[in-house]
């Protein structure tokens, strides 16, 4: 793997695992079974506003050799997303979504613009979008709550900024589980709570992709004035890819109706 990309992925893992205690725990439990974790994809969330819009984030990955592989629309959640793949098969895919802010209340739009405006315009399309953290000053907790009432996604982005939303274990690289269902049972037996929205497994072998996820970790997060509150941070996802008869290779895309339910893994309304 390109060493710059490897370094960036290591940065993403360090940042993500620092606010997602379930992820290193699952890693350790899998390592204890003799498993080696391979990452299928990482995902980011943002607002469709300069300089942080989807294409601005995507430029950073395209400069590292990534190419777009799909476009996805989520009418009910008012989101769009694109996926990106890399010619090096050992490199994780990237999934970036953005909130279509103009479809929300004027108050939400103003709030999102106020956050995006704190990011220097010169960071558009550059690594600093990811490396300079936090992306903006902490929001007041009541602003966060009001955003959540309109859009869980909007609240998550306000609280965390431009950070990895989830990493994904590639089930295919695991050796000691017969099925994604058996893997999910093992997670539950180890005390993890699955996202059951739309069923614990999203997608089917016929659709060439099965996905599941645990609910986001609940962690103390800092809001304006130094107020600390326990809110959902990030989650860990699991993906099993089937051979695409059209290419003879593992299916490389995503399924919008599955992703739609996976987004809910960070919902404040789902009890951990
Ligand atoms: Ni995902």
Oligomeric state of the chains?
A: single chain
Helix content: 25-40%
Order of helices and strands: HHEHEEEHHHHEHEEEEH
> Helical region count?
9
Gross geometry: globular
**Total count of strands:** 9
Average pLDDT, all residues: 96
- Measured by DSSP, the beta-strand proportion falls in 15-25%
Q: Mind describing the biggest β-sheet?
A: 7 strands, mixed
Roughly how many Å apart are the termini? 36 Å
User: SS-based structural class?
Assistant: alpha+beta
Biggest sheet: strand arrangement: 2-3-4-1-5-9-6
Bound ligands? nickel (II) ion
Specify Rg, calculated over alpha carbons: 18 Å
Describe the structure.
The longest helix is centred in the N-terminal third of the chain and has 17 residues, at 3-19. The chain contains nine helices and nine strands. A hairpin with a 7-residue loop joins strand 3 and strand 4 (93-99). The protein has 272 residues and is of the alpha+beta class. A seven-stranded mixed beta sheet has the order 2-3-4-1-5-9-6, with helices on both faces. Strands 7-8 form a two-stranded antiparallel ribbon. The N and C termini lie far apart (36 Å). Helix 6 packs antiparallel against helix 7 (152-160). Nickel (II) ion (NI) binds next to strand 1 and strand 5.
């Amino acid at each position: 793997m390109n060493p710059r990309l490897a370094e960036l992925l290591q940065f993403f893992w360090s940042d993500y695992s620092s606010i997602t205690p379930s992820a290193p725990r699952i890693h350790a439990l899998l390592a204890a079974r003799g498993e080696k974790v391979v990452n299928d994809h990482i995902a980011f969330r943002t607002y469709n506003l300069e300089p942080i819009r989807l294409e601005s984030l995507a430029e950073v990955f395209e400069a590292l050799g990534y190419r777009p592989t799909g476009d996805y629309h989520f009418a009910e959640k008012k989101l769009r997303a694109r996926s990106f793949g890399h010619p090096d098969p050992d490199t994780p895919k990237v999934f970036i979504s953005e909130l279509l802010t103009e479809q929300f209340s004027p108050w939400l739009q103003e709030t999102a613009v106020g956050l995006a405006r704190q990011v220097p315009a010169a960071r558009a399309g550059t690594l600093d979008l990811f490396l300079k953290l936090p992306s903006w000053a902490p929001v007041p907790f009541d602003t966060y709550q009001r955003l959540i009432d309109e859009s869980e996604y909007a609240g998550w982005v306000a609280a965390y900024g431009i950070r990895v939303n989830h990493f994904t274990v590639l089930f295919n690289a695991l050796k000691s589980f017969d099925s994604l269902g058996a893997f999910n049972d093992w997670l539950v037996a180890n005390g993890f709570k699955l996202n059951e929205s739309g069923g614990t497994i999203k997608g089917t072998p016929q659709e060439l992709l099965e996905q599941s996820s645990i609910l986001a970790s609940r962690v103390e997060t800092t809001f304006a004035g130094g107020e600390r509150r326990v809110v959902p941070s990030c989650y860990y996802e699991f993906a099993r890819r089937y051979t695409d008869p059209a290419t003879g290779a593992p299916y490389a895309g995503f399924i919008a109706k599955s992703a739609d339910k996976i987004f809910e893994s960070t919902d404040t309304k789902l009890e951990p």
